[in-house]
Write a structure and sequence with these properties.
The N terminus is likely disordered. The strands form 2 sheets. The chain has a 5-stranded parallel beta sheet with strand order 1-6-5-2-4. It has a two-stranded antiparallel ribbon with strand order 3-7. The longest helix has 12 residues. It is of the alpha/beta class. 43% of the residues lie in helices and 20% in strands. The chain is globular, with a radius of gyration of 14 Å.
């Protein structure tokens, strides 16, 4: 029983906030937030969230955190998304462990589009 409750506790702990599409949209409208798409370049080029500035760093690449450190500003919140939410949650965990303040889009771009939010190519 201790093993089960111990694993449940560790799963529930995260150092980032997962938000719905409306809250994510409000957050990325701020100049103090960096929008990060962690999908592949091919996925990004198909469609991405319409914003003034979107950074694309592929979470599946082994140098993800190295690139993030080179590009992202730790003084600004990172708003991260992917296709469905799985890669962005992994990226959010890595980034928050590295000292970034992170918010994650629940359901990814799929949920974003489902809610009628704007994307571009």
């Amino acid at each position: 029983m201790t093993l089960i409750s111990g694993s449940l506790c560790s799963c529930g702990q995260q150092n980032f906030k997962t938000v719905d599409a409306n809250e994510f949209e409000n957050a990325i409208s701020s100049d103090s937030v960096q929008l990060l798409d962690v999908r592949t370049a091919e996925e990004y080029n198909e469609a991405h969230i319409a914003a003034d500035s979107v950074i694309n760093i592929d979470k599946l690449q082994p140098d993800f955190i190295t690139k993030a450190r080179q590009i992202l500003n730790k003084d600004k919140t990172v708003a991260v998304y992917c296709r469905s939410g799985r890669r962005s949650a992994d990226a959010a965990k890595l980034l928050s462990e590295d000292g970034y303040k992170v918010i994650d889009l629940d359901g990814g771009i799929i949920e974003w589009e489902k809610r009628g939010k704007k994307t571009c190519k």
